Structures are given as structure tokens and as C-alpha cells.
């Protein structure tokens, strides 16, 4: 029992000495690795502030208190906190030695990232490097101390274990009979013996005893520590376990990017040439202590946990022609720039291997060299893209990025555009083939011919397009680029090409043609017309002639290109290969010269026009556009005062713009110039008009009437016409007939200046006579007042036409609305006296127009009242009024309006129509009454029992809002009394004075008689206190007014109202007696009228007062 217990204790001690894997410990290690190496510094600070993670994590930190002095005060505190976190926790987890270099490298990267936010970036990076070197040296020393302490502790533990094993064996009780216990003891013995043996071995022998996982871990350790000599010896002595691609992956992953490439260039050469050399004394540099203590299983696990980067960069995965060394160098360059931002280290790495691969040379020239020049040489003050970003740029985006600095530069920096093309863009062009291949490979196998995207422009085409588009906004920048850059062959590759040509001869010729075409196209996009722009365009044109070996002087006899059209000037077509106006050649150069000189000529004529507009005008051949341009130029010249020499020079320039100095022209043009669609006579006529307007009469005579040499430019008849036309323009614009003022003065001066040269012209003589007569009449004046005539008649006529149109369309409601709302009686004007009518010039005419207006108004109302619709429905319900009765009521309302508007001699015509409507209404009411009685009789007979037929007279309900005064019918005596009063005023005017002198008793009598009248008619109908004029009173006034206008009208009006149209009254008295004898007739129609009102008022809605009171007036004629 004692021996068994002793064996168990021995095995327990052996188990404690072997490394174990705890799941919780593994999770803790993963979290620690993530916090130190994976997450950003901001995320780490957030976790640190919240103590996020397992409780075993040590968050203590002294910041940067132990770091060197920081005179600039750069903020490295967060970086120091994470560095301390890594040191403390990796020591607690016994992983400090293997990860120490990686923690230090991450610390440096954190500080470099902080330097991006600092103002003095270079000083910040230098300080960060000092920090890094300090912690690296201190950490290495501390790691050695920890390693020695651990080794001493493990040796002590091993000795104790051995003593326990020996005791057990000596006593013969260690293992009993179990074979497993014996085998374990033997393995432990072998391990102990191996440890004792290896501790005394040579370092090279120790290295040979290590397994492959141990060698990989040792290589990682050397790479992390930047120990190139030890790594060189290791890879040379254990080359079978460390293949080339594995070594390169270790270097990519663990060799610090800030490590000087010169320190491991020789080692890379050995790897590239497969000539590994361990060095002179490998034992001096080899140290396997960091891995020799690891068991095989532990070493395999750590080897498996290594996260090695692939040698091939993802961006260049499709480059099959690259070997593994080239892939490593490209990937290492990207890592150096991404991790440190020290792009200047990349040439130290790549240049020694340029002869290793042509691809590598092309990649360095097209990718690294342009970015180096932008970042360190040309624009060090500006931020630039990273190597990863720059390598991914293609097409227009790449061109825009490379020119971004010069486009946003100010002043003299814009002159560097040619330098940028030579030193940045041109080297970048050398990699066009490789970029195109990468672009096609990234599209994948799914990109078929049918699904192929539209043609993407090449890199050179994108450059030419950029120059063209830039000329539209900044011609000076484009001109500088073309003037100082000699074309596609002008490249500054820094000598790295070593005599190689990246553009073959055929492509060179094609690119030169496109370059010259781009320069020509730039001139067609010039939209500014100021003098500096024209001078810049002239210099650009001279540069084009120099590139194409053409003579600068223009050949003005060269006709315009006949195959050209305005569509060729569209921006997207300027760079087409078949564009005749931009294809480099003699004809296109001459056309551009002429257009440029035309723009300069127009600028000197004070009317600047851009070259693009002139080119479009020349190709469009629009006569109206060219004559408009000529007139605007001449008008601009006339706006300022000029002498004869200036006008002569302007005329010569305009004629040159017309024919460009040559008599040759196309068949469809009159000349070859900008104004070639015009005839010469049109140009000369406009110039002649301007000279006359500017009062340059001697120059007109010298040029157009009596020239010193040759024939006159215009016929004398045309000159005479222009002179007289200008004279009459001044004459028509004159506001005073005096020839010494204004337009008359200009007209008289023009005629006087040219009259001696046209002494036999009858038109000149008539013009002179007209001016003399106008001058003589200017001393007399006739003031004419503006009047407003026929306005009322016109308005009435238009309304009448609208009413007629509505009736023709069977739209009675519209006609009714127009009559009721628009044909209202006009306000009567005071009657003028006879004396005023006798001496008034326009009163009679005015009355005639007013009569015409009223005549149109009342006739339109009469036509509407006479209208009878054939489409009116005869069906109705018990809850609604009959439509025929409703229509009759509307017609009678229109007739009442016509009666108010009609003149006295037409009242009989209106009343005839009224009588017809009344007869029709009476018939309808009678039929309705009869039908109702028949219905009631039939109902009585059907009722059970006996009922006494009783007629209950129902008092009609008065309408809400209307007084009882208005419901009483107006008696005919009231009408007669009003007529008599009106007649007495007109027949006996002398009574007015007597009436005015009557006493208060007479007024009382009048008031009492007024009260008596109110008993027989509507209450208050004759009262002057009623503020509202009812339509019934308007009808009464119209009737009495018409009767009072004369005895003839009175006789005819009253005679018709009494039923006899031929009845003639000799005196007023008998007529009144006849009227009184007929009053009894009104009682027979009273019941019918009351019934009609009760049945129709329920469903009839009229605006304003009703006109049914006029029914009483019409019925009392009986």
C-alpha cells in the first residue's frame, strides 16, 4: 500500500511538470490576443474603461512614465496602456517570450497611427521610433531574466521528481505489476536523460535534434526579433523543414515592417537563388532555448495556431507569371506602406530585385514610382493615397487622382502640370497592360461576350479626355500641359527602365495622332471670349503647328471643310478618329487659325464671341443667325463715339469676317467667312446705316457715293433708300415738329447733308417738303382728350352674343343667368338741358351709343324670355314644382327685365310676349286644378262612410323673411296715379314752383293720400322711406316713365293694357275712368294667382325679389 501511494505521488508530480491545456485558459489567451493585436485602439480603451473581459486580465498600467522624454507632448498614452496590458497579461499566461516582439511592433504601429492626427508628423514618427527602441531593449532584457528564472525552477522540480522516482525503485515498490506504469517511468527516464544530454550539446546539434514544429516556432521567434543572422543559419541548417514559401510567409507575418530592408536583402537573394548559407559561425547566433523546452505536442499546437499571411497579395492573385519571390516582394511592399507608412523603404526592397522579374520592374515603375513622387517629391505637404489604394485605381479615377493636386493648386503651382504628366502619369501608363489583365480577371468567368460591358476607355484615352475637359474650364492649364509635354514618348521613368520601351512604334504613332487631335479639340471647346483667352488659344495653335511641322502663317484661300457639320463640335465626338475638323492635317489647322483670328477681330470690334460659338456658326450656315450677329456688332460699334479712321477699320474687319480675305467660296454660300451666308450688300447696308446714325456723313459720301477708287460698294438707289429710311425713322420718332429739336433735327440734318448729291431725286424733294410742312405746323396745337366711347355698347353686345349662343345650344339656364346677373338697368344720368344739348359736340353721339347698348340689352332679354325649350320634361313628382311652371316663371322674370331695359316705343312688343306667357300659365294652372279636383272627387268616392264635401280655404303661408306689405298685389290705380303724376310734371312744368311752395298742410294731405294708397296696394310701395327698390316698383316706374314720355306713348301703352291695341286716348280723364271700370276683372284672377303662388313658391328658389307681382299689374289690364 505504501509503494502504490508512492507511485501515484510520482506520477502526479510528473503530470504537474507537463504542460496542460485548460479550455478556460485557451479562451483567456484568445481574448488577450484579440485585445492586443486585433481590435482598434479606441475599442481597447473602451474595454479598458469598462473592465470588459475575464477577471484574470490585468488592466494596470503606468502609462508612459517609464518612457523617454517627450518634448513635443505627443499623445502616446493609449498606446502605452495597451503595451503594458500585453506585457502584463502575456507574462501571466507564460507566453511573453514568443509574443514579445509582436507586442512591441503593435505598440509602434499604434503610435504611428496616433502621429497621423498630430501636426508635426515626421517629428512624431521619430519620437515613436525612439519609444519603440527603448521598450524593445528593456523587454528583451526582462525576457532573458524571466527565462533564466523559469529554467532554474524547472531544474529544481526535475531534481525533486528524480529523487522521488529513485526512492520508489530502490524500495521495489514504484510500479507494481502494471505495464503502463513501467512504460511511463521509462519515458520519463528517457526525457530526463535527453534533457541532461541536450543541455550539454553544441547549439548546432541542439538545432538538429529539434522537430519541424520546433524549427518553425524558432524561425518565428527569430523573425519577430529581427534576428536575420540566426534566421539565415536556421533556414540553411534545417532547409528541409523550412521550405521557401513557408520562410517567406514567416517573414511577411512576423518580420517588423519598419526593419531596414538593407539588413535582409542579401538573405532574400540567397532564398531567391536557392543558395542558402548558414554563415561563418552559426553556433554563435543560434539560440534554441526558447523552444527546446516545449514538448512535441505543445510545439505542434503552437505551430498550428500560427496565423501566417499568404505570400501572394490578393490584388495580384491572377498574375500567373510571377514567381514566389516577386509575389513576396510586392506583398512586402504593400505591408510596409500599410503598417508603417514609410513608402521610402519600398525602393530599398524592390530596386535590388528589378532584374529578377520584368513584371516587378514594370510594377515598380507604374505603381511605386508615381506614388513616391507625389508623396515625397512633388506634393509632400498634401495627403496621398496608400499603396493599396493607388494600385487599385484605374481609368478616369486614377487620372483624376494624379491631377488632383495640380488642379487645386494656385498660382505658379499650375505650371507643374507637364512635370506631373511626365513623372507621374506617364510612368503609371507603363502598367496599363497589367491593370487591364487584372480587371478582366476580376470580372470572373461569368463575363461573356453577350454580357460584356460597354467599351471602357484605355488609360491613354482617359488622359486625353482629361486634357480636353480641362480646356473647357481652364484653357491655360491645358495649354501649359500641351506646350511643355512632347507627347506620349516624353516619359520620366527615373532611369529604372534601363533602355526599355514601354510603348511600341505602332502605338506611338497612334498616340501621337490622338495627342494632336486632343490639342485641336481643345480649341473647339473654348467658350470664353476675352483677350487673354484668345492669346492662350493662339499660343496653343502655334504649339499644334509646331508639333505637326506646319507653317504658322494661315493660307486664307483654303476653303472651309465641306464635309463638316455642327454635330462634329459635340464634345463627345471631338476625339473620334473620323472627325474631319479635329483630325490633324493642313485643312483643320487652317480652319482653326481662321476661327481664332475671327474671334480676335470680333473682340477688337467690342463684341467678343468664343471660338466654340464661331465654329458652330460657321458649320451651321444659318442666315438669320449671321445677320443677327452682324447687327449686334454694328449696334455695339454705334454705342460709342468713333472717328472716321476707326469706322474705316471696323468696316474692313467686318468685310474680312464676311469672306476671310478670299473670293473663293462654296456654291451654297456668298463668301467663305463667318458671315458667308450674307450677301455683301447686306453687310454694306448695315455699315451704311451705322455711319448715318453716327452722323459720319462725309465718310458716307467718300465710301458709298463718290469713292476715290473703284465702283461704289452699293448702287446709288440703294444708298438713297437707306438714307431716306434713316431720315423717316428719325421723323417718326420725333415728338416735336420743330426742325431744331430732337428727331426732326436729325432728319433735317441727314436730308441737308445728302440733298446736293441727290438733287434730281423726287423722293428727296418730297421728304424736304414734308419736313418743311411739319416744321410750319409745329407752331399750332390741337389738344385732343382721350374719351371712352362705345364701351357700354360693346359690353352689352358681347353679353347679348353670349345669351344667343347659350340659346342656340339649348342652354336656357346659362342665358337666364346672364340676363338676371349682367343685364341690369344702367344708372340714369341727369337729363341735360336743352341749351347744353344745343352747344354740345358729343352728347348726341353719346346718346346714340347708349341707345344702341340698351337696344342690344333689351332685345337679348326679350329673346331669352321668348325662348321655349322643346326638350323640357313634363314629368314631375309631388315633392317638386312642375318644370314647365318653373320655366314659365323664369321667362316672365326675363320679360320683366326686358321691360325695364326696353325703350318706350317697344313696350308693346314686350307686353305681347308677356300676354302669351300669362295665357300659357293660366292654361297650365287650370289643367292642374282640374286634375286635382278629379283626384279629390275620386278619393271621396272611395272613402268608406259618408263625408260632407267641405272646401276648406287654406291661407297660404307667407314666405319667411318677406313682410306682409310685399304680399299685397299692386293695384292698377296706383299705376295710373303714378302715370298721372309723371304726366302732370311733363305736361305742366310750371306747377313745379307752386308745388314747391305748398305749405305743411299740403304735405300732410300728400302723406294721407299715400296712406290711402297703401290700403289698396302693397304697403309702402309709394313711400320714400323704403330703402330697397323692389323689382315690382322698378316695373311700375318703367311703365309710368314710358307713359309720361309723351301723349302718343301714353295712349298706346294704356290702350294695350286695357286690351285694345288700337285704342286711342284723347285726354287722360276718360282713360282713367275706363281703367276703374276694368278693375273688377282682377277679382276673377286673384284666386288663380294665389293658388299659383302657393304651389310654385314651395320649390322655386330665386335670387333677390320675385317678379310675380308684375302678374297683378298685367292682369289688371283686363
CATH topology of one domain: Phospholipase A2
Helix content range:
55-70%
Q: Which structural class should the secondary elements be placed in?
A: mainly alpha
Based on CA inertia axes, which overall geometry fits?
flat
CATH superfamily of one domain: Phospholipase A2 domain
Notable features of this structure?
single chain; 1118 residues; mainly alpha; disordered N terminus
In short:
Residues 216-786, 791-934 form the Sec39 domain. Residues 997-1030 are annotated as: Disordered. The protein is built from 51 helices and no strands.
3D architecture notes:
The radius of gyration is 59 Å and the shape is flat. The termini are far apart. Among the domains are: 12-170, Up-down Bundle (Phospholipase A2); 205-308, no CATH class; 504-616, no CATH class; 621-714, no CATH class; 724-777, no CATH class. The protein is 63% helix and 0% strand. The protein contains 51 helices and no strands.
Describe the protein's topology:
Elements lengths: L1 H16 L5 H16 L2 H10 L26 H16 L3 H20 L5 H50 L8 H20 L4 H7 L2 H13 L3 H10 L6 H11 L10 H8 L9 H4 L3 H4 L3 H10 L18 H17 L5 H5 L7 H21 L8 H6 L2 H8 L1 H4 L9 H13 L2 H12 L15 H15 L1 H10 L20 H20 L6 H17 L38 H19 L6 H10 L2 H16 L5 H16 L20 H14 L3 H9 L10 H17 L9 H13 L7 H16 L13 H18 L3 H11 L11 H5 L4 H24 L16 H19 L5 H36 L21 H4 L4 H16 L3 H6 L3 H17 L14 H14 L2 H11 L10 H10 L4 H16 L11 H7 L3
